[in-house]
Protein backbone atom coordinates (compact mmCIF):
# COMPACT_ATOMS: atom_id res chain seq x y z
CA UNK A 1 0.00 0.00 0.00
CA UNK A 2 1.22 3.48 -0.89
CA UNK A 3 2.47 5.57 2.03
CA UNK A 4 -0.12 8.26 2.78
CA UNK A 5 2.68 10.64 3.74
CA UNK A 6 3.34 11.25 0.05
CA UNK A 7 -0.23 12.31 -0.73
CA UNK A 8 -1.23 15.92 -1.34
CA UNK A 9 -3.28 17.71 1.31
CA UNK A 10 -5.52 20.76 1.24
CA UNK A 11 -4.70 22.89 4.30
CA UNK A 12 -7.28 25.69 4.37
CA UNK A 13 -6.68 27.56 1.15
CA UNK A 14 -3.24 26.15 0.37
CA UNK A 15 -2.37 22.85 -1.28
CA UNK A 16 0.49 20.94 0.35
CA UNK A 17 2.42 18.64 -1.97
CA UNK A 18 2.70 15.97 0.73
CA UNK A 19 1.59 15.35 4.29
CA UNK A 20 4.97 15.90 5.95
CA UNK A 21 5.64 19.00 8.02
CA UNK A 22 9.06 20.25 9.02
CA UNK A 23 8.63 20.86 12.76
CA UNK A 24 9.65 24.22 14.24
CA UNK A 25 13.26 24.13 15.42
CA UNK A 26 15.24 26.91 17.07
CA UNK A 27 18.64 27.13 15.38
CA UNK A 28 20.00 30.42 16.77
CA UNK A 29 21.55 31.69 13.54
CA UNK A 30 20.03 35.21 13.61
CA UNK A 31 23.35 36.62 14.78
CA UNK A 32 22.75 40.31 14.03
CA UNK A 33 20.05 41.87 16.26
CA UNK A 34 17.77 38.83 15.84
CA UNK A 35 17.36 39.64 12.12
CA UNK A 36 16.87 36.64 9.79
CA UNK A 37 19.51 36.39 7.08
CA UNK A 38 20.55 34.72 3.83
CA UNK A 39 22.03 31.67 5.57
CA UNK A 40 18.66 30.98 7.17
CA UNK A 41 16.97 31.39 3.77
CA UNK A 42 19.34 28.79 2.34
CA UNK A 43 18.61 26.36 5.21
CA UNK A 44 14.83 26.59 4.79
CA UNK A 45 15.10 26.54 0.98
CA UNK A 46 17.01 23.25 1.20
CA UNK A 47 14.03 21.76 3.06
CA UNK A 48 11.27 23.04 0.72
CA UNK A 49 10.42 19.43 -0.19
CA UNK A 50 8.31 19.30 2.99
CA UNK A 51 4.58 19.78 2.44
CA UNK A 52 4.76 22.56 5.01
CA UNK A 53 7.68 24.15 6.86
CA UNK A 54 7.07 25.66 10.27
CA UNK A 55 9.95 27.97 11.14
CA UNK A 56 11.89 28.09 14.37
CA UNK A 57 10.28 29.95 17.27
CA UNK A 58 10.29 33.68 16.47
CA UNK A 59 9.52 36.34 19.01
CA UNK A 60 6.62 38.74 18.52
CA UNK A 61 8.13 41.07 21.15
CA UNK A 62 11.53 42.27 22.42
CA UNK A 63 10.42 40.85 25.79
CA UNK A 64 9.86 37.40 24.25
CA UNK A 65 13.43 36.76 23.06
CA UNK A 66 14.56 34.40 25.78
CA UNK A 67 17.51 32.82 23.97
CA UNK A 68 20.59 34.10 22.15
CA UNK A 69 20.24 34.76 18.41
CA UNK A 70 16.63 33.69 17.94
CA UNK A 71 14.83 35.68 15.25
CA UNK A 72 12.21 38.33 15.86
CA UNK A 73 9.12 39.56 14.04
CA UNK A 74 8.47 42.99 15.50
CA UNK A 75 10.12 45.48 13.14
CA UNK A 76 10.70 46.17 9.45
CA UNK A 77 14.22 44.70 9.50
CA UNK A 78 12.72 41.39 10.60
CA UNK A 79 10.20 41.55 7.75
CA UNK A 80 12.96 42.25 5.23
CA UNK A 81 15.13 39.48 6.63
CA UNK A 82 12.34 36.89 6.68
CA UNK A 83 11.37 37.79 3.11
CA UNK A 84 14.65 36.18 1.98
CA UNK A 85 13.37 32.90 3.42
CA UNK A 86 9.79 33.06 2.14
CA UNK A 87 11.05 33.97 -1.37
CA UNK A 88 13.51 31.07 -1.35
CA UNK A 89 10.98 28.51 -0.10
CA UNK A 90 8.26 29.67 -2.51
CA UNK A 91 10.69 29.67 -5.44
CA UNK A 92 11.30 26.00 -4.66
CA UNK A 93 7.57 25.21 -4.52
CA UNK A 94 7.27 24.98 -0.72
CA UNK A 95 4.86 26.45 1.82
CA UNK A 96 5.93 28.05 5.08
CA UNK A 97 4.35 29.19 8.36
CA UNK A 98 6.16 31.37 10.92
CA UNK A 99 6.12 30.07 14.48
CA UNK A 100 5.46 32.87 16.98
CA UNK A 101 7.17 32.06 20.27
CA UNK A 102 7.18 34.40 23.24
CA UNK A 103 9.52 32.77 25.77
CA UNK A 104 8.08 34.50 28.84
CA UNK A 105 10.00 33.31 31.91
CA UNK A 106 12.27 30.94 29.93
CA UNK A 107 14.75 33.72 29.48
CA UNK A 108 17.73 35.59 30.81
CA UNK A 109 18.05 39.36 30.66
CA UNK A 110 21.51 39.02 29.06
CA UNK A 111 19.78 37.50 25.99
CA UNK A 112 17.25 40.32 25.67
CA UNK A 113 17.61 43.52 23.64
CA UNK A 114 18.14 46.75 25.58
CA UNK A 115 15.01 47.92 27.37
CA UNK A 116 13.26 44.53 27.19
CA UNK A 117 12.26 42.59 30.32
CA UNK A 118 11.67 39.01 31.37
CA UNK A 119 7.91 38.77 31.99
CA UNK A 120 5.43 36.00 32.85
CA UNK A 121 1.89 35.53 34.17
CA UNK A 122 3.31 35.33 37.72
CA UNK A 123 6.71 35.89 39.32
CA UNK A 124 7.55 32.17 39.41
CA UNK A 125 11.13 31.39 38.41
CA UNK A 126 11.83 28.38 36.18
CA UNK A 127 14.22 25.83 37.65
CA UNK A 128 17.37 25.21 35.70
CA UNK A 129 19.85 27.20 33.68
CA UNK A 130 20.08 28.61 30.18
CA UNK A 131 22.90 29.62 27.86
CA UNK A 132 23.84 33.26 27.33
CA UNK A 133 26.41 34.42 24.77
CA UNK A 134 27.72 37.01 27.25
CA UNK A 135 28.36 34.83 30.33
CA UNK A 136 27.66 31.18 29.48
CA UNK A 137 25.20 29.20 31.60
CA UNK A 138 23.04 31.24 33.99
CA UNK A 139 20.03 30.61 36.22
CA UNK A 140 16.74 31.79 34.70
CA UNK A 141 15.68 35.23 35.91
CA UNK A 142 12.76 35.65 38.25
CA UNK A 143 10.18 37.03 35.78
CA UNK A 144 8.21 40.19 36.43
CA UNK A 145 4.48 39.55 36.77
CA UNK A 146 2.64 41.15 33.86
CA UNK A 147 0.01 43.72 34.73
CA UNK A 148 -3.41 43.16 33.17
CA UNK A 149 -2.64 46.01 30.76
CA UNK A 150 0.63 44.28 29.80
CA UNK A 151 -1.26 41.06 29.07
CA UNK A 152 -3.44 42.92 26.58
CA UNK A 153 -0.31 44.54 25.12
CA UNK A 154 1.24 41.10 24.65
CA UNK A 155 -1.88 39.93 22.77
CA UNK A 156 -1.57 43.00 20.54
CA UNK A 157 2.09 42.12 19.89
CA UNK A 158 1.05 38.70 18.53
CA UNK A 159 -1.46 40.43 16.24
CA UNK A 160 1.15 42.90 14.96
CA UNK A 161 3.67 40.09 14.43
CA UNK A 162 1.09 38.04 12.49
CA UNK A 163 0.42 40.99 10.20
CA UNK A 164 4.16 41.48 9.67
CA UNK A 165 4.48 37.77 8.87
CA UNK A 166 1.90 38.11 6.10
CA UNK A 167 3.77 41.18 4.84
CA UNK A 168 6.96 39.10 4.77
CA UNK A 169 5.24 36.54 2.54
CA UNK A 170 4.49 33.74 5.00
CA UNK A 171 1.58 31.44 4.16
CA UNK A 172 0.49 31.63 7.79
CA UNK A 173 1.64 31.58 11.40
CA UNK A 174 1.77 28.98 14.16
CA UNK A 175 1.11 30.21 17.68
CA UNK A 176 3.49 28.40 20.02
CA UNK A 177 1.31 27.27 22.90
CA UNK A 178 3.60 24.38 23.88
CA UNK A 179 6.88 23.55 25.63
CA UNK A 180 6.51 25.79 28.67
CA UNK A 181 6.73 29.16 26.93
CA UNK A 182 4.50 32.16 27.63
CA UNK A 183 1.17 30.71 26.47
CA UNK A 184 1.65 27.45 28.39
CA UNK A 185 2.78 29.51 31.40
CA UNK A 186 -0.75 30.98 31.34
CA UNK A 187 -2.37 27.53 30.96
CA UNK A 188 -0.60 25.91 33.91
CA UNK A 189 -1.75 26.86 37.45
CA UNK A 190 1.79 26.49 38.86
CA UNK A 191 3.10 29.28 36.67
CA UNK A 192 -0.18 31.21 36.55
CA UNK A 193 -1.25 32.41 40.00
CA UNK A 194 -2.95 35.56 38.75
CA UNK A 195 -5.89 37.04 40.62
CA UNK A 196 -7.31 38.75 37.51
CA UNK A 197 -9.40 37.50 34.57
CA UNK A 198 -6.37 35.63 33.14
CA UNK A 199 -5.86 33.34 36.17
CA UNK A 200 -7.75 30.97 38.45
CA UNK A 201 -10.38 28.88 36.65
CA UNK A 202 -9.71 26.75 33.57
CA UNK A 203 -11.58 29.32 31.48
CA UNK A 204 -9.44 32.16 32.82
CA UNK A 205 -6.14 30.29 32.37
CA UNK A 206 -7.07 29.51 28.76
CA UNK A 207 -8.17 33.06 28.08
CA UNK A 208 -4.75 34.36 27.00
CA UNK A 209 -4.27 31.55 24.46
CA UNK A 210 -7.80 31.91 23.12
CA UNK A 211 -7.59 35.72 22.91
CA UNK A 212 -4.35 35.43 20.94
CA UNK A 213 -5.91 32.92 18.53
CA UNK A 214 -9.12 34.93 18.15
CA UNK A 215 -7.44 38.28 17.55
CA UNK A 216 -4.80 36.92 15.22
CA UNK A 217 -7.55 35.18 13.21
CA UNK A 218 -9.49 38.45 13.02
CA UNK A 219 -6.35 40.16 11.71
CA UNK A 220 -5.10 37.68 9.10
CA UNK A 221 -7.82 35.03 8.63
CA UNK A 222 -8.39 31.57 10.11
CA UNK A 223 -6.80 29.78 7.14
CA UNK A 224 -3.49 31.36 8.10
CA UNK A 225 -3.44 30.47 11.81
CA UNK A 226 -2.39 27.26 13.55
CA UNK A 227 -1.55 26.54 17.19
CA UNK A 228 0.91 24.14 18.80
CA UNK A 229 0.13 22.46 22.13
CA UNK A 230 1.94 19.95 24.35
CA UNK A 231 -0.58 18.55 26.86
CA UNK A 232 1.11 16.94 29.86
CA UNK A 233 4.51 18.30 28.78
CA UNK A 234 7.15 18.76 31.45
CA UNK A 235 9.68 20.65 29.34
CA UNK A 236 10.92 23.97 30.77
CA UNK A 237 9.88 23.12 34.31
CA UNK A 238 6.17 22.65 33.62
CA UNK A 239 4.62 20.84 36.59
CA UNK A 240 1.80 18.29 36.45
CA UNK A 241 -1.63 19.51 37.61
CA UNK A 242 -4.99 17.89 38.34
CA UNK A 243 -7.06 19.76 35.78
CA UNK A 244 -4.74 19.10 32.80
CA UNK A 245 -7.20 16.89 30.88
CA UNK A 246 -10.12 19.25 31.46
CA UNK A 247 -7.97 22.22 30.43
CA UNK A 248 -7.12 20.71 27.05
CA UNK A 249 -10.69 19.48 26.55
CA UNK A 250 -11.95 23.03 27.09
CA UNK A 251 -9.25 24.38 24.74
CA UNK A 252 -10.18 21.90 22.00
CA UNK A 253 -13.87 22.80 22.26
CA UNK A 254 -13.17 26.53 22.20
CA UNK A 255 -10.61 26.28 19.41
CA UNK A 256 -13.19 24.42 17.36
CA UNK A 257 -15.40 27.52 17.58
CA UNK A 258 -12.57 29.85 16.51
CA UNK A 259 -11.50 27.48 13.70
CA UNK A 260 -7.74 27.94 13.37
CA UNK A 261 -6.60 25.92 10.37
CA UNK A 262 -4.72 23.40 12.50
CA UNK A 263 -3.81 22.15 15.94
CA UNK A 264 -0.29 20.74 16.21
CA UNK A 265 0.23 18.31 19.09
CA UNK A 266 3.55 17.07 20.28
CA UNK A 267 4.78 14.21 22.32
CA UNK A 268 8.23 14.47 23.83
CA UNK A 269 8.27 11.08 25.49
CA UNK A 270 11.00 9.87 23.14
CA UNK A 271 13.18 12.69 24.48
CA UNK A 272 12.76 11.41 28.04
CA UNK A 273 9.84 13.70 28.90
CA UNK A 274 6.29 12.89 29.95
CA UNK A 275 4.08 11.36 27.20
CA UNK A 276 1.13 12.94 25.42
CA UNK A 277 -1.69 10.81 26.91
CA UNK A 278 -3.62 8.83 24.30
CA UNK A 279 -7.01 9.85 25.75
CA UNK A 280 -6.09 13.55 25.55
CA UNK A 281 -4.91 13.16 21.96
CA UNK A 282 -8.13 11.33 21.03
CA UNK A 283 -10.30 13.86 22.86
CA UNK A 284 -8.71 16.71 20.91
CA UNK A 285 -9.12 14.79 17.63
CA UNK A 286 -12.81 14.28 18.47
CA UNK A 287 -13.56 17.84 19.51
CA UNK A 288 -11.41 19.85 17.11
CA UNK A 289 -12.69 19.33 13.57
CA UNK A 290 -9.86 21.11 11.75
CA UNK A 291 -6.53 19.66 10.64
CA UNK A 292 -4.53 17.81 13.27
CA UNK A 293 -0.73 17.55 13.10
CA UNK A 294 1.14 15.09 15.31
CA UNK A 295 4.86 15.35 16.10
CA UNK A 296 7.42 13.42 18.10
CA UNK A 297 9.67 10.55 17.13
CA UNK A 298 7.97 9.67 13.83
CA UNK A 299 9.54 7.90 10.87
CA UNK A 300 7.91 7.12 7.53
CA UNK A 301 6.38 3.85 8.75
CA UNK A 302 4.88 5.28 11.93
CA UNK A 303 3.67 8.33 10.03
CA UNK A 304 1.81 6.20 7.51
CA UNK A 305 0.26 4.16 10.31
CA UNK A 306 -1.03 7.27 12.12
CA UNK A 307 -2.37 8.72 8.84
CA UNK A 308 -4.03 5.46 7.78
CA UNK A 309 -5.65 5.16 11.22
CA UNK A 310 -6.94 8.74 10.90
CA UNK A 311 -5.16 9.74 14.11
CA UNK A 312 -3.82 12.81 12.28
CA UNK A 313 -3.94 14.60 8.91
CA UNK A 314 -0.30 15.64 8.79
CA UNK A 315 2.87 14.42 10.50
CA UNK A 316 5.69 16.71 11.61
CA UNK A 317 9.33 15.64 11.74
CA UNK A 318 11.91 17.58 13.73
CA UNK A 319 15.38 16.07 13.87
CA UNK A 320 14.88 14.00 10.70
CA UNK A 321 14.37 17.24 8.68
CA UNK A 322 17.15 19.02 10.55
CA UNK A 323 19.67 16.41 9.38
CA UNK A 324 18.08 15.48 6.03
CA UNK A 325 17.12 18.33 3.71
CA UNK A 326 15.80 15.73 1.22
CA UNK A 327 13.98 13.68 3.87
CA UNK A 328 10.98 12.71 1.76
CA UNK A 329 13.16 11.58 -1.14
CA UNK A 330 15.04 9.39 1.30
CA UNK A 331 11.80 7.93 2.67
CA UNK A 332 10.54 7.35 -0.89
CA UNK A 333 13.65 5.47 -1.93
CA UNK A 334 14.35 3.75 1.38
CA UNK A 335 17.78 5.39 1.57
CA UNK A 336 19.48 5.77 4.95
CA UNK A 337 19.28 8.97 6.97
CA UNK A 338 21.98 11.39 8.14
CA UNK A 339 22.10 11.57 11.92
CA UNK A 340 21.64 14.97 13.61
CA UNK A 341 24.69 16.51 15.28
CA UNK A 342 23.53 17.89 18.63
CA UNK A 343 26.70 19.93 19.14
CA UNK A 344 25.74 22.26 16.29
CA UNK A 345 22.00 22.61 17.01
CA UNK A 346 22.37 26.17 18.31
CA UNK A 347 25.84 27.31 17.17
CA UNK A 348 26.25 30.17 14.70
CA UNK A 349 27.39 29.43 11.15
CA UNK A 350 26.94 26.85 8.41
CA UNK A 351 28.35 23.85 10.22
CA UNK A 352 25.58 21.42 11.16
CA UNK A 353 23.10 23.79 9.50
CA UNK A 354 23.33 24.03 5.72
CA UNK A 355 26.01 21.37 5.19
CA UNK A 356 24.02 18.14 5.73
CA UNK A 357 24.48 16.12 2.50
CA UNK A 358 21.65 15.28 0.11
CA UNK A 359 21.51 12.03 -1.92
CA UNK A 360 23.19 11.94 -5.30
CA UNK A 361 20.64 12.44 -8.08
C1 LIG B 1 17.21 21.74 17.84
C2 LIG B 1 15.75 21.75 18.19
C3 LIG B 1 15.10 22.96 18.35
C4 LIG B 1 13.72 23.00 18.64
N1 LIG B 1 13.07 24.21 18.71
C5 LIG B 1 11.72 24.26 18.78
C6 LIG B 1 11.02 25.49 18.62
O1 LIG B 1 11.60 26.56 18.37
N2 LIG B 1 9.67 25.45 18.72
C7 LIG B 1 8.97 24.29 18.98
O2 LIG B 1 7.74 24.32 19.06
N3 LIG B 1 9.62 23.12 19.11
C8 LIG B 1 10.97 23.06 18.98
N4 LIG B 1 11.60 21.84 19.03
C9 LIG B 1 10.81 20.60 19.13
C10 LIG B 1 10.53 20.02 17.73
O3 LIG B 1 9.64 20.83 17.02
C11 LIG B 1 9.92 18.60 17.81
O4 LIG B 1 8.71 18.68 18.52
C12 LIG B 1 10.85 17.59 18.49
O5 LIG B 1 12.15 17.63 17.91
C13 LIG B 1 10.30 16.16 18.40
O6 LIG B 1 10.20 15.76 17.05
P1 LIG B 1 11.27 14.71 16.41
O7 LIG B 1 11.22 13.49 17.28
O8 LIG B 1 10.74 14.47 15.03
O9 LIG B 1 12.60 15.40 16.43
C14 LIG B 1 12.99 21.79 18.78
C15 LIG B 1 13.67 20.57 18.65
C16 LIG B 1 15.02 20.54 18.33
C17 LIG B 1 15.70 19.21 18.14
Describe the structure in your own words:
The chain has a single domain, classed as TIM Barrel. The chain is built from ten helices and 14 strands. The protein has an eight-stranded parallel β-barrel, surrounded by four helices. Strands 1-2 form a two-stranded antiparallel sheet. The protein has a two-stranded parallel sheet with strand order 6-9. The model has no long low-confidence stretch (mean pLDDT 97). The chain binds flavin mononucleotide. The site of flavin mononucleotide has 23 residues, from strand 4 and helix 9.
Task: Please outline what is shown here.
InterPro entries: Aldolase_TIM, OxRdtase_FMN_N, Oye-like. Keywords: Oxidoreductase. This protein has 361 residues and is of the alpha/beta class.
Question: What small molecules accompany the polymer chains?
Answer: flavin mononucleotide
How far apart the termini lie comes to: 25 Å
Q: Please indicate the percent range of residues in DSSP E strands (runs of 2 or more).
A: 15-25%
Tally of DSSP β-strands: 14
Number of H- or I-type helical stretches: 10
Spatial order of the strands forming the largest sheet: 3-4-5-10-11-12-13-14
Pattern of helices and strands: EEEHEHEEEEEHEHHEHEHEHEHH
Output the radius of gyration: 19 Å
Count of folded domains: 1
Helix content: 25-40%
CATH class: Alpha Beta
- What structural category do the secondary elements indicate? alpha/beta
- Low-pLDDT segments: none
**What CATH architecture label applies?**
Alpha-Beta Barrel
